[in-house]
Amino acid sequence: MAELSNAPAPSQEALVDIYRRMIRIERNDDAIRKTIRLGRLVMPYYSARGQEVIPATISSLLTDDDKICTIYRGIHDMVAKDMPLRPLWAEIAGRVDGTCKGKGGPMHLTHPETGVMVTTGIVGSSMPIANGLAWAAKLDGSKRVTIAYFGDGASNIGAFHEALNLASVWKLPVIFVCQNNGFAEHTRYENGTSVDFIAKRAIGYGMPGHTVDGNDPLAMYAAAHEAITRAREGEGPTLLECKTFRFLGHVLGDDDKYMTKEEKAAAIAKDPLPAFKAWLVAQGHATEDQLADMQAKIEAEVEDAQEFGLASPLPSVDELRRDVFAQEMPA
Amino acid sequence: MTAKKMNSLQAVNSALAQAMAEDNKVLVLGEDVADREGGGVTGATAGLSTRFGDDRVKSTPISEQAIIGAAIGAALSGYKPVAEIMLMNFTTVAMDMIFNHAAKLRFMSGGQSTVPITIRTLTGAGWQTAGQHADHLEGWFAHTAGIKVVAPSTPADYKGLLLSCIQDPDPCIFIESAGSLFIPGEVDEVATPIPLGKARIVQEGTDITIVSWSSQVLRCQAALPALAEAGISVELVDLRTVSPWDREAVLASVAKTGRALVVHEAVRDFGPGGEIASTIAEELFGQLKAPVRRLGAPKSPVPFAKVLEDAYIVSPERVAEAVKALMA
Ligand SMILES: Cc1ncc(C[n+]2csc(CCOP(=O)(O)OP(=O)(O)O)c2C)c(N)n1
Ligand SMILES: [Mg+2]
């Protein structure tokens, strides 16, 4: 774990809370994958296994009032934001008790109560909308902040460039969090991106930009703390480039032949989850028993959510006429 | 000529290879299309960069506007680019390039400019990809002057029509659709281009004409046995090209049968079926034995839940029901 020089050190409580969010993401992801493999869930799944530290750390610094916009690979961002798992499971199962009544599905969950405002399937589109949420916070005189999550590949689409410029000109309380996992579908970072560090692009838009080890909770905490504080204090946006790796390819079932076995193995060997757990115990921030107990509770929560989701009723076809407009359409 | 059994995705690959071999002005660009990136996420462009070189087959960043823009620029310089927009919904972020530029440059330059680009794009409900990955937007493009819209349903047509799009002097959008992509059929290894704007009669009949295109043709076809059993003689017309569409073939067929049903996967309201239905009504008013009917998706985004997605798509059962109602 690298310590940043002038960064505020997270409290013991904060560290354990980050771990709680990480393990909740991972246990939930594991259950989703198992359920898909058993054929009990049918859905395209973009696992974020390996990327847990980023939203876990950021969310530990957010309240329910703070907003996020995320992407198809975003269930980790939602779970980190403490979205309840029952409606999450019902949604990915396409059931009425889902966050979106089964209409949105795994790429498009929305849960305003926990600040999950938009989940987009269109690369780049989380950022312009995050600006609007941040603008509203400013108009409301609120100190809430908005996080726009996106991938490295998304930094090459027009929406990224327009959104960063606008956020800077309007000094918006938004943090652009790029989860740089080194690949955009099958394209390796350097074959699609003109700069060696996406954070460098911040210079062009007049905002601070930092490249952070997205698998290191302490480095992430320091960088996120600074960016979030800056946004809350009305000093404007920040671009955080968080370097990480996705362990399970682009979409579940992809054979990831576009990466080498060695680089994948090397990344998995540095899995941040067991590493952080060991560190917490070694530093005396938590005991093995305490973390095992935490994990058992989370596993029970996941199991309950899974049962709930899969038992929830299927939507009626009348739902095709509802929610298209505020007023139900005639049959 | 040797024919081979292949699915429509393989037919696309085969058409691209043939076009590139025949004309070195043909280029391919799009996200992940080169072999270094696996030859396309569906494999549609597999092998092309290895065979024709990285200069002619280029993977791009996730930048749809830049993809279409580059295709237009190369086309203005004499090339014939085939740009892949991975999914049709992603054309939305390149709409300025497609609608304001590719489609209009010939007219607005007084005929000096020509933009012979082909935009290949995949779409269609059925894979539970929900509201931002599955829309059939052919109506948007068909409404635009200056762009041709092609939507085949069989492997042979995928190949023959893609070859024509690539050779065509105007921009074409070539729609690959989920419901027909993996159905095999016979395809010539060296195929002859199939002319744009010409329909294909899937089955001849005398009682009623069904007009359809893209994957929806297969769902209409699936309704035919039940209808035959019910003693109804159906003429099924696969339009293949949505714009310009084969008015002659459709009108000749309906003049014969006196009844018409237009069926598409796209949303029915304000959909392309309206154009066809109203043309039939205008031209054949006195000869119709029943009102012209349309079937299409409800005015709803494509839903995720399987039960809703199934209800969203016009099933063979609903086609059969509508035909029977028109015969009653
Ligand atoms: C506008 C648009 N173009 C293409 C796609 C298809 N697509 C989905 S994910 C993806 C790769 C995105 O990579 P990155 O931004 O690095 O995020 P990651 O998937 O690695 O988390 C692509 C090209 C899309 N969803 N939207
Ligand atoms: Mg990525």
Automatic annotation (TrEMBL), chain A:
GO terms for biological process: pyruvate decarboxylation to acetyl-CoA. It comes from the Bacteria. Keywords: Oxidoreductase, Pyruvate, Thiamine pyrophosphate. The keyword Calcium does not apply. GO terms for molecular function: pyruvate dehydrogenase (acetyl-transferring) activity. Its cofactor is thiamine diphosphate. Its EC number is 1.2.4.1. SUPFAM superfamilies: Thiamin diphosphate-binding fold (THDP-binding) (SSF52518). It catalyses: N(6)-[(R)-lipoyl]-L-lysyl-[protein] + pyruvate + H(+) = N(6)-[(R)-S(8)-acetyldihydrolipoyl]-L-lysyl-[protein] + CO2. Pfam families: E1_dh (PF00676). Residues 21-313 form the Dehydrogenase E1 component domain. It is an enzyme of class 1 (oxidoreductase). Signal peptide: none annotated. InterPro entries: DH_E1, PDH_E1_Alpha_Subunit, THDP-binding. The pyruvate dehydrogenase complex catalyzes the overall conversion of pyruvate to acetyl-CoA and CO(2). It contains multiple copies of three enzymatic components: pyruvate dehydrogenase (E1), dihydrolipoamide acetyltransferase (E2) and lipoamide dehydrogenase (E3). This is Pyruvate dehydrogenase E1 component alpha subunit. It comes from Sphingobium scionense. The lineage of its organism: Bacteria, Pseudomonadati, Pseudomonadota, Alphaproteobacteria, Sphingomonadales.
From TrEMBL, chain B:
The keyword Transmembrane helix does not apply. One of its GO terms (molecular function) is pyruvate dehydrogenase (acetyl-transferring) activity. It comes from the Bacteria. It is an enzyme of class 1 (oxidoreductase). Residues 6-183 form the Transketolase-like pyrimidine-binding domain. SMART domains: Transket_pyr. Keywords: Oxidoreductase, Pyruvate, Thiamine pyrophosphate. The keyword Oxidoreductase applies. Its cofactor is thiamine diphosphate. Its EC number is 1.2.4.1. PANTHER family: PYRUVATE DEHYDROGENASE E1 COMPONENT BETA SUBUNIT, PYRUVATE DEHYDROGENASE E1 COMPONENT SUBUNIT BETA. This is Pyruvate dehydrogenase E1 component beta subunit. It comes from Sphingobium scionense.
